[in-house]
Amino acid sequence: MRADQDRDHIRGGVHTDLRHDSAIKHVTGRADYCDDIPEPVGTLHAYLGLSERAHALIRDLDLSAVETAPGVIGVLRAADIPGVNDVSPTGRNDEPIFAEEKVEFWGQPMFAVVAETRDAARRAAKLAQVIYEDLPHALDPIAAREADMGYVTPPLTLKRGDAKSAMEKAPHVIKAQMKVGGQDHLYLEGHIAFAIPGEDEDVMVHSSTQHPTEAQHMVAHVLGVPSNAVTVNVRRMGGGFGGKETQMNLFCSVAAVAAKKWNRAVKIRPDRDDDMSATGKRHDFVIDYEVGFDDDGRILAVSGDFAARCGFSSDLSGPVTDRALFHADNAYFYPNVLLNSHPIKTNTVSNTAFRGFGGPQGVIAAERIIEEIAYHRGLDSLEVRKRNFYGDKGRDVTPYHQTVEDNVAPRIVDELEASADYQTRLKAVKDWNSKGGIIRKGIALTPVKFGISFTATWYNQAGALLHIYSDGSIHLNHGGTEMGQGLNTKVAQVVSDEFQVDIDKIKITKTTTEKVPNTSATAASSGTDLNGMAALDAATQIRDRLIAFAVERWQTEPAKVHFKANAIEVGSEMIPFADFIREAYMARVHLSAAGFYKTPKIHWDRATGKGRPFYYYAYGAACSEVSVDTLTGEYRVERTDILHDVGKSLNPIIDKGQIEGAFIQGMGWLTTEELWWDDRGQLRTHAPSTYKIPLASDRPRTFNVELANWSENKEKTIKRSKAVGEPPFMLGISVFEALSHAVASVSDYSASPRLDAPATPERVLMAIERLKREA
User: Alpha helix locations (H) across 399-526?
Assistant: First the structure.
């Protein structure tokens, strides 16, 4: 037996810490991204010409100076598109690649320049002479509603019980409005597409996309060719967060059309300013809510209207605004509830998916309702939260009529309350604030319950392709995309565990539509759930064939064939894995398999607002403490403690990293990240110089993150784990509510500060001054 078989355990199996497979490449700069792919001789570069009006008719578009600029090969306009001038992911035909007669937001593409160099294309794009006829524009949901702009997609209503009647009978009723800002993805790697023409109708597109299949379909649609003529490849992304689920359609299509028109490779990569201006963001919401409750702070009825800034086209606004309603209960039972979405059209860029997919906007509304009740009744908000948690039969049905069967939120909150020493620290915070100093402190402990699955049921499927070569090395391909979250590492761990081989024997190759067709987006926190199970299915098929081979070859029983660490045990004989595979190959055993998985149990009827859209729920809680300067509104996060439920973790260290990153990104959404359009409709926060994501110095001074190591998914997920990408994003709400708590201290906690998000220092200061005046 060789040295590598002298161990009882493999390296890199499931439920163990294992660093990201590309970690060393990331930190040394050796990880290859789309822009690092060697360019063939003759590669051209495209750049977009963007509108400078929010809403206007295009009376004249003179591109003569563009076409004659140095290095320019040609220009693409709507008329140059061989197929359909539309990249709408919903098939509503409302999102043209190039505007033709009218522009509907500042930054909308009107044409593309194709030149010998990127610099030449970028400079030439600025030379267009455009004559506009301005039309009235509306930039936010309130203005758009007043202008009767209408909806970009049909709204949704969720209801259970009789909210109107229960509200009328409730001892206490609060009615108010909350504004929740949007968020730019600000992925480190911006959008990029690199198209290489092939023979006949063929084209290969390398792209930074979370959804290769959709890019494939869109390019085919725009070129007027079948999907089998288009191949889309993704090795890795430098971040996505939902911003590369549909937004790459534009860039892939432009690159592909140009590549086929000039029969040369074409790359398109906008700079950060144009990337932020021309691509969608998290939806901002205006939420009108009403809650009825009893003397003890128990909720009796909730109604809410969720109006979203959707932009000029539908994009994913339908499912995003649906999901806001799905999570408007968070971890709380509403006996009577009526919720309505309002996906409002505005003259801004069409908003899109972002980590949480509308869920965070719903959750923060639920937490605002809890805070309203707490301040009204003079109770600690944590006590109000506990009194309204989902519970046993009769208190376990959501507004969309799914029964909550796996509720661990109370246990998570109780354990975090103890480990974070919440009660002692709450008393210390109040004692500090009672002194009346300039610096006020606040503390909050907030939970999250987050449903896992695509609400579009057909997306809950995945495929994988697995080969074992005759030397025992393994080639793994699946339909998910790697954007830094560790998906490839986790899926490889699943295969490693199934064959009991060291993980370094497994190579995961780039995601490509050539190997695994009809993939779903790597989104909705479902990447590992879906692709891990598909890879497991493929591995199980091969494993079963290998066992059958061993039974026949050694004339034994299946029960006597065992996969051990890098070896196969057949009876009393131990055969190194590579040797066993060589024998199987010589015996003509099929060593390749296509795996498939579809999520069971889920169903959803949007017309009735009823079903089981989620396979299971993930839970978590965070306790945050802040200090606020009441003279300036500036603040800092002193400490955050998190306890999060990831089921039986496939890779605890990667899951902790995801939780930390999600929390910071959620905190940024609610504090420093402010999108601002001027009166003309131009986005002014279009670069890191004006759009402020959290810095390393903004992280909590003390940051404790733990996994609920006792948790195990009740549903049959991959190795009983739970999704981790999106759920912890909502834990940043604990910072927002802690800021609210600190602000409330200036009026002795007599009223809810009703902070809008993001709670920038300016908004915090204004809330402080408002409470002082009202006190």
Answer: 409-419, 422-434, 487-499
Three-class SS of 654-689: HHHHHHHHHHHHHHHHHCCCCCCECCCCCECCCCCC
436, two tokens: 């009346």
- Asked if residue 3 has pLDDT above 50, the reply is no
Nearest-10 Cα torsion for 292, 300, 286, 454: 180
Output the CA–CA distances (angstroms, integers) from residue 122 to 207, 262, 701, in the order listed: 20, 19, 43
Whether the CB-CB separation of 310 and 723 falls below 8 Å is answered with: no
* H or E, element range at 629: strand 616-629
Q: Please, what's the b/e burial string for 577-614 (b: 16 or more CB within 10 A of its CB; e: otherwise)?
A: bbebbebbbeeebebebbbebebeebebebeebbbbbb
pLDDT in tens, 687-697: 999 999 999 99
Distance CA 89, CA 153 (A): 13
Q: Classify 10 as helix, strand or coil.
A: coil
- Look-up of token digits 């998914």: 713
Annotation says 726 is catalytic: yes
Say if residue 4's pLDDT is above 50. no
> What confidence tier does 775 reach under pLDDT thresholds 50, 70, 90?
confident
- Tell me the C-alpha distance between 125 and 132, whole Å: 17
Instruction: Tell me which of 726, 737, 769, 774 is the catalytic residue.
Output: 726
Convert the pLDDT of each residue in 208-229 to its tens digit: 999 999 999 999 999 999 999 9
**CB 409, CB 390: distance < 8 Å:** yes
At 701 the three-state DSSP class reads: coil
The sheet carrying 129-134 orders its strands as 102-103, 56-62, 129-134
Amino acid present at 669: W
- Structure confidence at residue 7 (pLDDT): 64
Confidence of residue 8 (pLDDT cuts 50, 70, 90): confident
Q: CB–CB of 531/525 below 8 Å?
A: no
Are 552 and 499 in contact by the 8 Å Cβ rule? The answer is no
pLDDT at residue 455 in the model: 86
Dist CA 111 CA 90 (whole Å): 23
pTM of the model: 0.97
Q: Determine contact, residues 77/96, Cβ cutoff 8 Å.
A: no
Angle at 773 between CA 769 and CA 775, to 5 degrees: 115
Question: What integer best gives the mean pLDDT of the chain?
Answer: 97
Of the candidates 132, 118, 115, the one whose C-alpha atom is nearest the C-alpha of residue 67 is 115
Sheet of 635-644, strand order: 439-452, 616-629, 635-644, 702-707
**What element of type H or E holds 439?**
strand 439-452
Residues 6 or more apart whose Cβ sits within 8 Å of residue 407:
389, 390, 391, 396, 449, 617, 619
Q: How far apart are CA 86 and CA 97, in angstroms?
A: 6
* Cβ-based neighbours of 113, under 8 Å, separated by 6 or more: 46, 47, 49, 66, 69, 72, 75, 121, 124, 125
Per-residue model confidence as pLDDT tens digits over 249-291: 999 999 999 999 999 999 999 999 999 999 999 999 999 999 9
Name the token pair of 175.
């009615």
- Radius of gyration of the chain measured on its C-alpha atoms: 27
